[in-house]
Amino acid sequence: MSNYIRLTKILLKNGFGNAFGKGQKSNKKKLGQALLYLFVFISILPLFFMVMGMTNTIYDALSMIRQEGLVLVLGFWITAMAIFFFGIFYVINVFYFSGDIENLLPLPLRPSQILGAKFTVTLIYEYITELFILLPVLISFGIKSSGGIPYIIYAIIVFITLPIVPIVYAAILNMIIMRFTNIGKRRDLFRMIGGIIGMVIAIGFNVIIQRFVNNNMSPEQLQKMLVEGNNSLVSISNSIFPSNGFAAIALTSPGEVRALVNFGFYAAFTIVLIVIFLTLGELLYFKGVIGVSETSSKRRRLSSKEYEKNVIQTPIIKSYIIKEIKLLFRTPIYFMNCILMNFLWPIFFVIPLAANPSGFGAFQEIFAVLSNDKYAGIILVVSFGISIFVSATNSIAATSISREGQNIYFNKYIPLSYKDQIMAKVLSGVIVSLVGTISMFLIAGIVAKMPVYLILLSITASIMAVLFTSFIGIFIDLRAPKLDWDNEQKAVKQNFNSVISMMACIFIAALTIVPLVVFKLSVMPVFAIIISAYLLINFMLYKLLMNVGVKLFARIEA
């Protein structure tokens, strides 16, 4: 136990130390960093209160039929699925491909101690996910239900322990794959394929469970359970995450004996899973982790014709853009977090249809709105907002400097000015983001039969949105790049600059979007306002980057 505690402290210090910077900082830099954190906190508050408001509304509707416990079921389910979804490829990098593995293996540590420490670090990082999703739900439900002290105690314990089950699922899956697939020397390929498989599994579980519920719960049964009241529908949540149902029942009746009983079941299920995880770790972990730091390569002699064919002179900025895009595609972590995320949003749209094809009729009303010229202005505003969100969440521009890591010194010597390097990084992010957003609009246009002119206007507006988010992202990363990292995961997933950039983009864009929605303008005035406003904003940001940004780049040291 003492080794586990010491190792956990070291890993946490290493991880959070990098996240908040090392070394002495001037008071000016400390003040600037504090103001950035304050800005992010203020930007998050509207989202936090929006989730609380939605929870209150759903609670009021369900309380009329005494099924308010479904609010907790929904919150637990979304939280667990989000943690499992991202945990698939997050766990494999923390457990197997982090830079500390080679240092830990020779030490007199058991596999369970290393796994326990790494699991704890992963668990702490996942609390950030819970803060956005589960915390406002728990607070709203506690206020509305007047649960009192027992509810607060149960809620705190559930918040701390809820991520354990989905992380254990992801960890066990990764351990089995790593133990019985002898492809450690091709770890980049494995990480990429494994991440994609993990996402497919997570989405597949969602579809299967929803279909199972739909197929095994007739309308008559559902109506009967609704009439019964007393939170009888909470039992439906006992599917892939059985512990969630026990936790929901405990929180809906915190002062009763059944709350204590169900909480006992919740704790027992969680503990049993931890024991299984550690037991499997003793058997599988070392055999799967040995050799993962090795890589393979192929060497062959090129003929003169092959050499001439492969060595082609291209414009230097174009070459740098291609280099950036290739790096994003070839590095599994970058591919999962920066590239693949651009193309997942349409999949989330299709999931409800795949889970319940009979519900397709409900979408016909939405499609009718999208094809109605009367709502074209609102649709264009929404399309612009979606472009802002999608391009801001892929973190390509917001981590473009950080991804250089300790190799940033190389950027000081290449025959390319800082201005051109900055613009090449911006354009690489713009290209990838535009491919994702344009694909999304084309799919939506075909499925919903949107007018061609509206699709073209949405694509044009998305160009302004993507340029805007890319300029904002790289400027924030230039101010405080995260260069001290030992694996690519920390450069993107543990980089606070991506969060700051996302919040800043959403906050600034909201100043444009909200008035346009409130005044309900027609499509062409909306288009004119968006294009003119963001042409000006993007021009100002470009000038800022070419002056202040270049100076910031010049000051960066490895």
Write a structural description.
- It is a single chain.
- The chain has 558 residues and is mainly α.
- The protein folds into two domains: 2-9 and 49-296, no CATH class; 312-555, no CATH class.
- Helices cover 77% and strands 0% of the residues.
- The chain has 22 helices and no strands.
- The longest helix has 37 residues, at 27-63.
- The chain starts with a helix and ends with a helix.
- Mean pLDDT is 78; it is low at 18-24.
> How many strands in all?
0
Which range does the strand content fall in? under 5%
Low-confidence stretches: 18-24
The number of helical elements comes to 22
* SS-based class: mainly alpha
Biggest beta sheet attributes: none
Along the chain, the helix and strand elements come as: HHHHHHHHHHHHHHHHHHHHHH
Q: What is Rg? A: 25 Å
Structurally, how many domains make up the residues? 2
Shape: globular
Helix content: over 70%
The averaged pLDDT comes out at 78
End-to-end Cα distance, whole Å, is: 37 Å
